[in-house]
Design a protein that fits this description.
globular; 300 residues; two-stranded antiparallel ribbon; 21% strand; alpha+beta; 34% helix
Length: 300
């Protein structure tokens, strides 16, 4: 299972104390997608690939929406790095994913169609693309393609709600942020790479999103859910019911601050249309086009 499903499932668990009655088994998820829904999502993936192809860039930070996280004020749950000339093929997404059969995190290069098809609801989808400028883009591409470094930054233990400034666990978005730190912080060497990446992120003002947990009861219950942990979080955060977790919006805000000339493209779809929005104003979960947006009709 990819990190997207695990992060979203963990947050949704925390949203409902009723989940305590039946601990979810994240790796047993098996979705059934109709032919019509698959066709719609593949057309959406084609629109994403068109934007990547016309970008003039060799790399993009990419994020995808998963489950409904609106109660946390979140839309996107999973981030990766799309590479024009990566080992997985044109614009495959290099990302951390959790290998259920091995019970460990892995590095995975996934084609864009598969990446988009991984969303939980085929009736709706959101993808955000960030294209850093010039040298920032080149540094990110070079670092992302450095497989030994990418693997060195891969944590040994996975937690969907990993503390953003700890090395005990890691989630998919945290791996992206730490790789970004090596790229833009000009870090080098293999000695404690994750700790050094996090130190650089802290020094640059990286602010992990505080995810609010509804109650102490659900915080306690979460400790019994596979791949959800709170032991790595500061006690003050646990008592305050606010866990600082790396999510795509955290990365997006940091990239915009560090590289203000970064271009952003957001695409979304429902059952009737695809919307392509170029700019930093978010589209929102309803996928309503903003003035000047491109709208592509989907056949009924």
């Amino acid at each position: 299972m990819t990190c997207r499903g695990l992060v979203a499932a963990a947050l949704l668990f925390f949203a409902s104390a009723g989940a305590w009655a039946g601990i979810p088994t994240f790796c047993d998820r098996a979705d059934k997608v109709t032919a019509a829904a698959q066709d719609r999502v593949l057309r959406f993936a084609a629109a994403v690939k068109d934007e990547l192809a016309r970008s003039g860039s060799n790399v993009a930070l990419v994020a995808r929406a998963g489950l409904d996280l609106s109660r946390f004020g979140l839309l996107y749950s999973h981030a990766g790095i799309a590479l024009k000339d990566g080992p997985g093929g044109p614009w495959a997404v290099r990302q951390l994913y959790y290998a259920c059969d091995e019970s460990r995190p892995r590095l995975f290069d996934q084609g864009m169609s598969g990446f988009v098809l991984g969303a939980d609801n085929p009736a709706h989808g959101h993808v955000a693309l960030l294209f850093p400028p010039g040298q920032d883009s080149a540094q990110l591409e070079r670092t992302a393609l450095d497989k030994p470094l990418a693997l060195a930054l891969l944590g040994e233990r996975y937690s969907a709600n990993a503390y953003a400034f700890g090395t005990r666990y890691q989630n998919c978005n945290q791996w992206v942020a730490e790789l970004l730190a090596f790229a833009w912080g000009h870090l080098a060497g293999s000695n404690a790479p994750r700790a050094r990446a996090q130190a650089w992120l802290r020094a640059q003002g990286y602010a992990a999103t505080p995810v609010r947990i509804p109650s102490h009861w659900t915080m306690f219950a979460g400790q019994f859910v596979p791949l959800v942990h709170v032991g790595d979080h500061p006690l003050d955060d646990v008592y305050a019911l606010a866990l600082h977790i790396s999510v795509p919006t955290t990365i997006e805000a940091f990239v915009r601050k560090e590289a203000p000339r970064t271009r952003r493209v957001e695409l979304c779809h429902d059952e009737r249309r695809i919307v392509v929005h170029r700019g930093w104003e978010p589209l929102g979960a309803r996928c309503d086009p903003l003035p000047g947006d491109e709208v592509i009709a989907l056949a009924p």
